Structure formats: C-alpha cells, structure tokens
Amino acid sequence: MKKKGTISQLRHERDEDLMRAFQEELAGRPHILLPEVLEAVVTSPAKRFWVTSERASIVIYSMMAGDKLQGMLPLKRKMFREIYRRVMKLKKNYPQLSISILTEQVVGERAPEFYITPQSAKVIISRIRKRRRAHNHHIRR
C-alpha cells in the first residue's frame, strides 16, 4: 500500500530540488537557451534519489532475482542500476544489514542526476512557476 503523504512529500521535495538546480543554472548563464538549461538541470546532482525506499527495495530485490528491467524507461533503469550498484557495495561491507535497510540508506544519498528528461523537467518547472505565480497573486490581493 502506498503512503500518500510520503509520496506527495517526496514529490514536493523533488520539485524544490529541481527548482534549486534550475535557478542555479539560470544564475550562471549570460544567455538563456532553455533546452540547454534544462539538459544541464536534469544531469546535475540531485539532493537524493527521487524514489521511495519501498519502491526501490522492490526493484532491487527483483534485480537480485535476475530482472534486467528491460520493460522500464531508460532513465528509470539507469537510476535503479545505480541504486543497485551502491546497495551491493554496501552489502559487502555490512552483510548483516537487510537489503531494505541498505536501500533506504542509498536512496537518501546524493544522486548523480535527476533521472528525468529535459521535457519532464520543463513540465514540472512550469507547473511550479504557475503555482507560485497564482500564490503570489493571491497574497497581493
């Protein structure tokens, strides 16, 4: 069963992290070419892996059983392979810890990228900016 509060909180945190990366990328550029900015944003480091530890554990157990994740979107597959690599590395050092505990540790670590497409980032950023504009307009009234 999914915990709605956890997922919506995670989405909110991901959105804030994405906006941070977007604003940092904009600040460092004299000329703004949106496709280049979005590409740089999605490939910049993220605060954590933006997946629940429960979902990641399910996928990691599946990978341990031989699943190659062929039916998964390429960026998600890339993300889970990185999580798997880190979990297996930790398992060598901490064999007494469960895969679930190790996975929870790994998903909270800094991720090398956001694992979303520039187009997805554009949609998310547009939604956030629209929500912020509406909120600011409401406050000024």
Quick take:
The protein is an all-alpha fold and 141 residues long. The protein contains six helices and no strands.
Strand-helix topology:
Blueprint: H1 4-27, H2 34-42, H3 53-64, H4 74-93, H5 99-107, H6 118-140
Describe this structure in words.
The chain folds into two domains: 80 residues, no CATH class; 60 residues, no CATH class. It is 69% helix and 0% strand. α1 packs across α2 and α3 crosses α5. The N and C termini lie far apart (41 Å). The relative contact order is 0.16.
Cα distance spanning the termini:
41 Å
- The best one-word shape is elongated
> Uncertain runs with pLDDT below 50, 5 residues or more?
none
What is the CA-based Rg, rounded?
Answer: 17 Å
Helix-strand makeup class: mainly alpha
- Share of helical residues: 55-70%
Total domain modules: 2
Q: Element order, helices and strands?
A: HHHHHH
Question: What is the strand content?
Answer: under 5%
Largest sheet: none
What's the β-strand tally? 0
Number of H/I helices: 6
**Mean of pLDDT:** 93
Question: Main traits of this protein?
Answer:
single chain; 141 residues; mainly alpha; 2 domains; 6 helices; 69% helix; 0% strand
